[in-house]
Amino acid sequence: MTELAIRVENLGKRFRIGSAPERYKTLRDTIVAGVNAPIQRLRRGSSLTSTSKEASTIWALRNISFDVRQGQVLGIVGRNGAGKSTLLKILSRVTEPTEGSAEIHGRVGSLLEVGTGFHPELTGRENIYLNGAILGMKRTEIDRKFDEIVSFSEVEQFIDTPVKRYSSGMYLRLAFAVAAHLEPEILVVDEVLAVGDAEFQRKCIGKMSDVAQAGRTVLFVSHNMSAVLRLTEETLVLDNGQLVYRAPTPQAVDYYMAAGFTGSGERLWRPEEVPTEAAPFTPVAIRLKDKNGKVADTMRSTEQFSVEIEYRLDQSITGLRVGIYLLTMRGEYVFTSFDLDDAQKFEQLGLRQAGRYISRCTIPANTLNEGRYVISVNASSFRIKRYFWDDHALAFSVDATGAPGKHWPEPRMGPLRPALNWVIERL
Amino acid sequence: MATSQLSKSHSDVILLRPTHGLAALNLGDLWVYRELVLFLTWRDILVRYKQTVLGAAWAVIQPIIQMVVFTLIFSNAAGLTSEGAPYPVFIFTALLPWGLFSKAMNDAGRSLVSNRNMITKIYFPRLTIPVASVLAGLVDFAIGFAVYIFIILYYTISPTSAYSFKFSTSLFALPAFILLALVATLGVSLWFSAMNVIYRDVGHILPFLTQIWFFVTPIGYSSSVVSQKWQIFYALNPLTGVVEGFRWCLLGLHSLPWQLLAVSAGVAIILLVSGLVYFRNMERTFADEI
Q1: Which range, of A197-211, A311-325, B132-146, B273-287, averages the lowest pLDDT?
Q2: Which of A231, A258, A285 is the last residue of a domain?
Q3: Domain boundaries, chain B
Q4: A371 has pLDDT over 70
Q5: What is the DSSP string of B33-54?
Q6: A114: which chain B residues are within 8 Å (Cβ-Cβ)?
Q7: Minimal Cβ distance to B284: which of A96, A110, A135
């Protein structure tokens, strides 16, 4: 069991920036840009030649070294943009490293790219063969596993129907079934990018633990700390493209959850922390304010406090909702709330115009137990696009002085500490 | 229980490191992934006529309509000659390789970009994509060739036509000219598909480049129209050699223009080799740039 599965040495990946944000625009933009493009392109072309090359590139990964034994289940955690996905892309040979090297022993399969290469016009049967071939299976191998794949996907009846007529659930099930039967020596799971509902993600994780139990190597990237804790033995923490910590998972998770917070009750996003896909949404800041409106890191359980998210829209967005996930330090969700959770408000504010905004909510008194919490920020249009997501936007502490039950000096279980109205009746 | 899986993995160790300078052509990769090439070809063919009323009949109708239109324009209106063969036969002979070339160039040129979701997510030799696009063009070529046989038969049997098909040994050279057509097509396709990843301008250039290329290729006319002095430059277009070769071995109209053919074949081979080198060298940036 000490055989090597992966050895990574001084791996680094440099990306060119500046050419990416040109894409995914509207036709109108394209026409407007089309007039300016040749000029800009000439300028950019000349500036890229030699001198300013360093300035227009960023290192998404640098000096990464680690190795993975065969049969090991390794977690990889890090904030958005820490380089997790880039690392997986290099290890699965999609993109080439800029420096360093990696040694891979065996076939790498991934559960993140299910359905890649599916063609909507082809039938389920045809897509199984096509997708299998793209994932690197031989035709004989697909022939052998075909029945198993079909029954696993539960779409027997529709196997000769074009997949464009499938419901999204059927489509995902079929795609997942093909990927799950690849039987790679090394499985890569990027839960961050995994699409689909909770049920589907559970299936992914289930498959992953099967693979791990069969003695194969798994790399698991996730933002869900409880899943990482449950499934992995050892974890890498990436930050800003660097490998900052490697330890048994419980320690690594503690390190990750505690690291990198200013403790000021305010977080300002630097422009380089905002991915280009977020446009036209630009997050500016998230602040925690106590009942007097003062920004602070520690809130009192017995007093209400507010969370405000400041952001800018460079264009109007339809159906935008901005909200928070509140998590414990162990990564368990406490609640989720969006600024348009009120159905009536959602009707009225369907289109949010360009401009600067603050979305603010109040957490009522007597909600949270003492401890430390993490806020994730999400800005999305339901079923259309997730503009921005920072799963680690801000951490804060709750002080339970004066809270219900505080006269007993004992820790209270659970993240909530409500003041419930107890009635004691004598019968 | 997992020992069989694990023992297999010892053999295939992959070393990932940055490539510098000229990348190895590594065509063995293409052989390892030959099944994927066939699957992608098969996909391109299956998808092409899905949700059309006439389906694969389009592969028959398109060249026939082209033939009729070009016969009306070039022969009847412009009065171009056809060296003795009936004009429709004369032009169809040229439309066969031209159709293969133009269609494959346009499909393959866009192929990488239209398969971007595969390229950014999964590793496989990127060459498989344009190669499959070109191979898919062979199916239309085969259908067109069947139509061609009917046209030849019609003119041979028809009592009103002076033309009749004469068998000659030159017919056996046809596979060589099909191969030459494929070499030229693949060479051009590799260049355009790789360039299109970085410069989307290619997508805009292709339609009118196809038009210009059509007119500088002896399709509606014979290459003998071009003056002797310019013949050698004319032959720099690899399609010139291909079309003249097709006419020579299928119609036997004139002797084989060796010189012209040699130049065209040389250009085609240079295009293919340089296309492969360019493609392999750009390949490492595809996932980041596309």
Answers
A1: A197-211
A2: A258
A3: 25-283
A4: yes
A5: THHHHHHHHHHHHHHHTTT-SS
A6: none
A7: A96
